[in-house]
Amino acid sequence: MHAERDAIAKYVVPRLNDALREYGISVMVTDLRWGINTQDIEESLRERKVLRRCLDAITETRPYFVALIGARYGWEPPMQLMQNLLSDLPDSDKSLLQGEVKSVTELEILLGALRDPETLSHSFFCLRDDNAYATLPPETRSIFTTDPKGKQKRLKKRIVKACTDSDACTLIEYTPKWNEEKKGFESLSYLIDSLYQAIHADILHTFSHEQAELTSYESYAREEVLMRERSLDSFYGRQAVLKELTEFIEDFYRGANPDLRLHGLILEGDSGSGKSALYAKLCQALKEKGFIPLSFSAGLDRNSTSDRWMLLYLNTQINKLLNRERIEDDKSPETIFISGINNLLKEGLRPVVVIDSLDSFRYRDYVDTLKFIPLTVPYICTTTPQIIGIRVQPLPQTYKVLQLTPFTEYEAQELVNVILKLHHKELPPNLIDLLMHKDNEGIPAHAMPIWIIQALNILMELGSQDFRTIYEIKSASEGQIYAYL
User: Fold this and answer.
1) 165 CB-side CA count, 13 A
2) 391, 392, 347, 389: which is closest to 373 by C-alpha?
3) pLDDT on residue 46
4) 6 contacts 463 by C-beta, under 8 angstroms
5) Does residue 260 contact residue 319 with C-beta atoms inside 8 Å?
6) What backbone phi and psi angles, to 5 degrees, belong to 306?
7) Interatomic CA distance for residues 431 and 453, integer angstroms
8) What is the mean pLDDT of each run of 10 residues along the chain (485 residues)?
9) Using the 8-state DSSP alphabet, how is residue 94 labeled?
10) What is the pLDDT of residue 219?
11) Residue 386 CB burial class (10 angstroms; 0-12, 13-18, ≥19)
């Protein structure tokens, strides 16, 4: 199923993310057939690690499940291994998997799709038609059609019956063509289109209450929340900086800052150094501590490059907090903002203005001085270097500038671990080492979180054959690995 898995990763998922972005929805696929390092593990433990990782991934990604089903039943783990794994599962899953030995594929389908009506209703079965094997040479056909006990045929019948009886899941039957020269299946456009349409419709139906026409503010709010969620998924490190930022806010509201005019911190860092991820983490941390972050990330869309639009957006957020329906249209956005801040303070709330990417504003009426933020509330902004004092000039003595230092190699390594865990994957140590130490004009890659994240996102699209090949190049040079990728 290499061709089908590649098609899902490279065509279906990108189309889904493009179509669902306006709803604040992001789709990520976990492929259970590659990405687990077993080469450095003794043989007796390999099978258990692979199976355990697959079952864990299914549990964590419920209720959505895509099954690619051909004519091969697949590997059946030994009964002892099955018993060991079943002992770790909840009782409801144990009863589902007990009985005769089953292939890993059937175990995954039972646990991920046929478990209950909820998982079945969000399951998508892609059945490769048996006619697809008709033109294969006999020696090749035997690889794809191994089912000596007829278990695969029974599994297919069970799936078709479940879908027919419930009318809830999606069944896609397709007939790819074999390319003898490339030794693989192709002509998968029907599968790609059908699977995309089915998943897209299912997700929109699930989130149908969110399908009302959005205002520009609501659309931006969803995009901003989605950006923060993505950043938090792969956030690691920066604990010292995060502590300094949150303590500054706490000291401000305790009246512990010696300089009463000081109410702002501006965090400077190069592009790709992790400022936006820190912004997302800071907003989360402030909420957990009982503050009200009035957050805005500039540059997410065309509207958000205008600081006037930013104030209009923040005013709508303040109105919601104050349970007001309308904004006073006869006053300037700055006047309304300051009035709203004062009202939040009167209600006993503790607002904090948090603005990400000051350098992304193209239209500036207010951020040039930041005077629209009253001295009665603290603020934290992020920006690239050479903006403060040139394009943005806050009032003297009202702010401090902090420099965001590059990622350490240890932080970068932990970031890699976090992202791989998120995707339920592992990568060979030589490839990770290569990513960490790639040099860009004297700056090692591990110093730039965005490089690591983007490189790993690309590697997550590798197929199982790619994964095995890279693992075999254990002593490869940088040039060899890059040439292969």
Assistant:
1) 9
2) 392
3) 63
4) yes
5) no
6) -110, 125
7) 14
8) 87 90 80 62 62 80 90 85 77 78 87 87 93 89 87 91 84 92 90 94 74 71 84 84 95 84 92 90 95 94 90 93 73 91 95 95 85 94 90 87 88 87 77 79 81 80 66 62 62
9) H
10) 81
11) exposed
pLDDT at 468: 66
Nearest to 418 by CA among 471, 461, 456, 462: 456
- DSSP readout, 350-413? -EEEEEE-GGG-SB-SSTTTTTTS-TTS-EEEEE-SS-BTTTB-PPTTSEEEEE-PPPPHHHHH
Which H/E stretch holds residue 297? strand 292-297
Residue 404 half-sphere exposure toward CB, CA atoms < 13 A: 29
pLDDT at residue number 210 = 47
Q: How many CA atoms lie within 13 A of 65 on its CB side?
A: 30
d(CA 337, CA 377): 12
Residue with tokens 């002892």: 80
- CA distances to 38, 362, 446, 481 from 433, rounded to whole Å, are 18, 39, 10, 12
Encoding tokens for residue 401?
A: 């500038």
Yes or no: say if 409 and 433 are a contact pair by the CB < 8 Å rule.
Answer: no
For residue 215 the two structure tokens come to 């205002």
The predicted pLDDT at position 327 comes to 59
What is the enclosing helix (H) or strand (E) of 102? none
Strands 184-186 and 177-179, sheet pairing:
antiparallel
pTM of the predicted model as reported, rounded to 2 decimal places: 0.68
Residue type, 397: Q
Question: Cα–Cα distance between 125 and 156 in angstroms, integer?
Answer: 10
Residues 6+ apart with CB under 8 A from 293: 282, 283, 286, 287, 351, 352, 354
- Asked whether 96 and 115 are in contact (CB, 8 A), the reply is yes
